[in-house]
Amino acid sequence: MFGEVFSGDTDVLSHYTTTGDMPSVLDFAFQYRVKDVFASQKGTDNLADLFSHDVKYEDHNSSADLLMNFVSNHDVGRLAYTLDQSLPNADEDEKIQRFLLSNAMMYFARGIPVIYYGDEQGFTGDGGDRGAREDMMPSVTPEYNDNNLYGTSKTTADDNFDPSHPIYQQFAKYAELYHGHKALRQGKQTVLQTSDEPGIFAIKRSFANNEDYIVVFNSATEEKTLPNQLKVIQLN
User: Fold this and answer.
1) What CATH number did the domain enclosing 62 receive?
2) What string of DSSP letters covers 142-187?
3) Is 84 within a domain?
4) Which of 125, 113, 119, 31 is nearest to 77 (CA)?
5) How far apart, in whole angstroms, are the C-alpha atoms of residue 43 and residue 177?
6) pLDDT in tens, the chain (236 residues)
7) 16 touches 61 (CB < 8 A)
8) What is residue 234's predicted lDDT score, i.e. its pLDDT?
9) Kindly report the CA angle at 179 between 63 and 177, in degrees rounded to 5?
10) Which residue range or ranges hold the Glycosyl hydrolase family 13 catalytic domain (predicted)?
11) 14 occurs within a structural domain
12) What's the domain count of the chain?
């Protein structure tokens, strides 16, 4: 069971899992930082700063590993809408790649991935709250039906239960990896590489029996080269 605490402040969020004794909460801090890095093109060191607060969630029955990672929801709206607003001159292919990269972070960083319905069908929405509550069935709401959906020629006036949608297919690959490798679900996370500008963010997920996975993200639009030796970043 998890609760919704509408705050990006890790002191506030962690209060509910420790003092409040909730098993977990939606990680709004995660959503805000992912949006900063992959939509607003801020440095990947913002993600390192986020994870440096994970110790606040540690107690006898909770941890940051149980937080609910998400990139879209009914309150803050859809990440696709944020990308459209932040990158008005980018083409759809670039925005889809940023969208997929953000969701890969949701799956493979510490925490539990939570997909907001319709993201897998390329829904973009009209902002937060009521602007992000499109129908999966054919909609009769003009405010939704004039939206451009990512990766498809459909609109929300159509039925949108398409397992062949390219975003749906990519999420399925992420889910297969996530369920197929325990280190990606329960492994201890260590930050290895960050940048104060768009670029590399690398983490290690470590599990028993020396089962280590290196997960590397690149938020820049150009290729980046990893150093020969990744150094563990000491988080305060």
Assistant:
1) 3.20.20.80
2) HHHHTSPPTT-S--TTS----TTSHHHHHHHHHHHHHHH-THHHHP
3) yes
4) 125
5) 27
6) 999 999 999 999 999 999 999 999 999 999 999 999 999 999 999 999 999 999 999 999 999 999 999 999 999 999 999 999 999 999 999 999 999 999 999 999 999 999 999 999 999 999 999 999 999 999 999 999 999 999 999 999 999 999 999 999 999 999 999 999 999 999 999 999 999 999 999 999 999 877 899 999 999 999 998 877 665 544 43
7) no
8) 45
9) 110
10) 1-126
11) yes
12) 1
Phi and psi of 16, rounded to 5°? -75, -25
Pairing of strands 188-193, 200-207: antiparallel
Q: Is residue 223 part of a domain?
A: no
Which pLDDT score is estimated for 125? 97
pLDDT of residue 229: 66
Identity of residue 51: F
Q: In this structure, is residue 33 part of a structural domain?
A: yes
In angstroms, the CA 51 to CA 39 distance is: 19
Domain range for residue 140? Answer: 10-186
Contact 215, 110 (CB under 8 A): no
